[in-house]
């Protein structure tokens, strides 16, 4: 069995490769710079120079023929994940890049299954429930990442009907559950580092007004858990026809209030964060504090997430619990 993986050098991608490589005879990794200094602990890895934004994807014609004639599994994990990125950059990587990979996959003669790493950000924050098998109808987006990942998943759903297709929507990916390692400040980390930065002020505060919905839940999952679950899904796949969608979100996820209370405990603070409704002043204040305005709408999300199929096929997901890894995540501060 042979697998072709995009996005292997990214934060999640490196974990994916380390989990998936033992399952296959040959693992082909697409890279723009052929940086073989990473992931070199697997003897079955073959680096392929190319770029998902190029129509042919793979630079070398002979290697492209290998992909077209011999690959059993495609795993498309490459994406531009940055809520502050421009629309053109996000569209180039997330939409056109996915379109090029789909074009390559459709020409493949040995393909058994196509895996696409999407995101729960395709859900509409103004709705209450995101079903596994439904891509909701939406036209309003507050950041370019969410919009272009939505368009990319739509492409996958419309294109891959002739092949078994698996769409995986991870939650907000946080650091390693064992080491706490995280590659960038993102999602809940904005609040963690802001509190750390202004801790001398917060130590003297008892009440801090903050615009958020205390019931909004943070749909997080550690990067190592996410990669392990993807590898288990691939290992167990029977290649049934059609599209299956999975939501990879830890159990026992915290509300924003719970998360802020945990941060209080970690920093030894006694701050009560007084929630109030959306307003322009609060949004601007968060920007001054270093929290991007694109994050603001997620502080009021009403969404909960269907995990019916995911838990049925992946009961191990219940083992990923916020209470067991939160200290490791806070430990990088």
Description:
With about 325 residues, this protein is of the alpha/beta class. It folds into 2 domains: about 1-175 and about 220-250 and about 305-320, Rossmann fold (3-Layer(aba) Sandwich), CATH 3.40.50.720; about 190-215 and about 255-300, no CATH class. About 35% of the residues lie in helices and about 15% in strands. The chain has 11 helices and 13 strands. It has helices at about 10-20, 60-70, 85-105, 145-160, 190-195, 200, 225-235, 255-265, 280-290, 310-315, 320-330; strands at about 1-5, 25-30, 45-50, 75, 115, 130, 165-170, 170-175, 205-210, 220, 245-250, 270-275, 305. The strands form 4 sheets. It has a 7-stranded parallel sheet with strand order 3-2-1-4-5-7-11, with helices on both faces. Strand 4, helix 3 (about 85-105) and strand 5 (about 115) form a beta-alpha-beta unit. Helix 3 runs parallel beside helix 4.
